Amino acid sequence: MNVNPPEIFEPLYMEEARYYFLKGGRGSGKSWAVADYLLLQMLMNPELNLVCLREVQRSIKHSSKKLLSDRIDFHHLHNHFDVLSTEIRMKKGNGVIIFNGLQDHTVDSIKSLEGFSLCWVEESQTITSHSLELLIPTIRANGSKLFFTYNPKNEDDPIETLRHEKDNKIVIHANYLDNPFTPDSLFDEAEEMKSKNLSKYNHIYLGEYGISVGLIFENVDVRVIREDEVKDLECLQGLDWGFTDPNTFIILYLDQKNKKLYIMDGFHKNGILNSEIAQRIKNLNAHMTVIRADQAEPKSIMALRSYGIRRIIPAAKGKDSVNAGISFLQEFDIIINAHLTEIINDFKNYVWETDKKTGKPTNKPNHDFSHSADATRYACSHIALKQGNIGRIQKPRGV
User: Fold this and answer.
1) Where, residue-wise, is CATH 3.30.420.280 in the chain?
2) Pairing of strands 19-24, 169-174
């Protein structure tokens, strides 16, 4: 296996540590670098076991398996690795690579990982304190190593707290400018964002912390939501249209008595057509529940109905409905399921516009990162309407 990593990742091969924190923005190549390093370790010792983790892994397709399989293909390593449907096995030893979701583990079940000396946690910005408390003492074999790859969100996120606490560590902060394999298209996208929104560019492409000045929702908690928490609550659903901006669909449960709002599931995706939006809703088994969508696109509402999403209706909208809807949501503790990384990113970076002269927040929300909050507002619009938070419903023509 011929590995020639970008200079930024050379410490992986030149230094030894227990903890490896690889943080950075889009296109940095950090996941490729870790995948190559781990495959090389297993080639040198085919008895090693590797567990690849995420906070939430709903299926094998949401794991690191495809990336590792792609790197096995790239390096022509099929004489050494047997890529199976749910795991990867060494052909000349007993080593195995498995893929798990941390949220599925308990104090007892995580003991099954005690024999693993290599551990890789992808999307580590979403990992909870509870998961880290289970994981760290479990991966404890002599010479064991833990790798965390992530784009940092906030300085007080559990993964950043862990990074600050540990001494026996290697920290690498990379971005697309450090990656000699960055495609021209990504350079163009980064430069365009840099010219339009420097803060967003710094976070998404340079891997710096998300925006926090003038944060609209300070009442957000990210964790795994249990089914029993929401089983007796009404399910509400909202859809914010997009294409260049993301189409965002939210499934939530509202506890009005205790002032809690649980965002259970959904999607947040750019560049998808109405037919794919409909299919994604069906895949979530969400088409049998009323969906309240932005009424600004009556054609899209009609299109989704033609694709079998019969229970989609326009959301209530009236004078000052955006700010009124925000005020309504601010009354609740918002809990977001830990696997919804893009939706979490929206809520943790949705800010008020700042006055160019004073630099202070105004009462106008910035459009960037607004999509998940908008979909959530639409889902709750009929309740906010009854409580007088927003004005009358404006029903679009043709709906």
Assistant:
1) 220-386
2) parallel
Report the C-alpha gap between 395 and 31 in whole angstroms: 47
As annotated, the residues of the chain forming the CATH 3.40.50.300 domain(s) are 7-184
Of 143, 151, 148, nearest in space to 165 by CA: 148
Per-residue pLDDT of the chain (399 residues; tens, 9 = 90+): 788 899 999 999 998 999 999 999 999 999 999 999 999 999 999 999 999 998 877 677 778 999 999 999 999 999 999 999 999 999 999 999 999 988 778 888 888 898 899 999 999 988 888 889 999 999 998 899 999 999 987 787 899 999 999 999 999 999 999 999 999 999 999 998 888 777 778 888 999 886 555 788 888 888 899 999 999 999 999 999 999 899 999 999 999 999 999 999 999 999 999 999 999 999 999 999 999 999 999 999 999 999 999 999 999 876 678 888 898 899 899 999 999 999 998 998 898 887 777 767 777 888 889 999 999 999 999 998 776 555 443 433 333
| Interior/surface letters 57-84, b for 16+ CB within 10 angstroms, e for the rest | beeeebbbbeebbebbeebebeebbeee
Cα 322 from Cα 377, distance rounded (Å):
8
Considering the entire predicted model, what is its pTM?
0.62
The CATH classification number of 7-184 equals 3.40.50.300
Range 220-386 has CATH code 3.30.420.280: yes
E strand segments, 191-342 = 220-223, 234-240, 247-255, 260-269, 291-293, 312-314, 333-337
Q: One-letter amino acid identity for 36?
A: D
116 in helix, strand or coil?
coil
Token pair 């977001």 is found at: 336
**How far is it, in rounded angstroms, from Cα 207 to Cα 346?**
16
Q: CA 398 → CA 199, 238, 242, 296, distances in Å?
A: 40, 20, 20, 12
- The secondary structure of 307-318 as a DSSP string is TT-TTEEEPP--
